[in-house]
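Protocol step 4 of 5: obtain the predicted structure for the target chain.
Materials: sequence only (see below). No template structures provided, no constraints applied. The aim of this step is simply to have a reference model before the mutagenesis design in step 5. Sequence pasted as it appears in the construct record:
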Amino acid sequence: MSDTTRASVLWRPWTPITQQAQSLRIVEALGNRVRDEDGKWYIDAISGVLNASCGHAHPRLIEAATRQMGKLVHYDPMVTTHDPAETLATRLADILPGELNETVLLNSGSEATEAAMRIALQYWRNCGEDRNRVVTFEAGYHGSTFLCQKLSGLPFTVSEWPEPFPIDRVPLPAPASGMQTQEAADALVAGFEQALRSGPPAAAVIVEPLLGLGGCVVLPSGFLSRLRALCDEYGALLILDEVFCGFGRTGRMFGFEHETVTPDLVTMSKGISGGYLPLAAVTATSAIKQSFLSEPLVQGLRYGHTTGGHAVAAAVANTVLDVIAEERLVENSATQGRRLLDGLGQFTDSPLVAGVRGLGLVVALEATSVEAGEAIAETMADEGVMARHERGVIRIAPPLTISAQETDQIAQAVGVAIGRGAPAAPLRRSSSAERRERTE
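Step 4 output (structure tokens):
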């Protein structure tokens, strides 16, 4: 079977079928870089799948997985427990604020969203109220399973299937580049208040502290605190989706720590295990867990998966917490994020650039067109930097282990790309064979 045929039989998600045989094949990753099959190394400004927060092939994470595999790989989480999972749940309770003490371990961010929705809606039934309405961002993204896609109003999540419960989606009152003003903050709060005030009492509000796939939108300062106050006023649970932002990505351990906010539930994945193994978590307050003593069938959570709380994944996650603390990765995220923003700020006068924004090591360069964005990302790859382009926005989110020198190299690659200008038509990612032809 040829390389082209091998690439075409693997049905990859979120990728046009006509482009599947034209993509890079990555064969090795080390530190903050990845290598393709032609031997070219790239700075990984995508962090794998936005989850390789500790970099690739970190020896301590590999050792943690290997050690746990030789001891206990996994066992039924519904009838037994084990030390890695118990330890991780305890440590999450220690680093999360308030009464966020009760953690269920899962496999993915989508599962975490589904579990959080199940917990929130069942909580109200446990309390004797039949609340099932949810309020969220129209531009929010919470996963790719049926329920998760229904929460979002983004065009690529749309389906014809009926909604599982009433969902009100609040639109952004301004473009992403204009969301940092006081006027935008007031309008956004007013939009959520209108949604909470209209219709039957809401069960929950679920938002990301920074909108990832919705355009890498940095929310206005003070919004989360005001949203917390609104949830308290209208009696709705506040669920914060930290799947992407959590574990240092935004320059704080959790995205909501940029404000003094304590949610009722928090969802986590991606950086929790550094991308080494699938893992996710939902942590709720003790009061929410205690309400399940009134759940009519099992007096507990009727949600779980075969490999939820996998022992090897949990062991790696415990070591990730050690690495984050000992290597000061949260602090490095803040430092290198500011350095990258400063480096990209020099390009804001370019006719190809609509704006630059970011928080920690989530930095977005918004191009003036989708074609310009595709061209910039293509040239960055030619210059040895892998970034992620989505609908005109180039998202740069390297591992939290990124060095100052590598941060500067990312900015330099952007400068080269902008200096070359945008093409008249959209580009597609070059195949390995085409790149070889250009260099021969």
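Step 4 remarks: The first strand starts at residue 26 and ends at 30. Confidence is low (pLDDT under 50) at residues 422-440.
Proceed to step 5.
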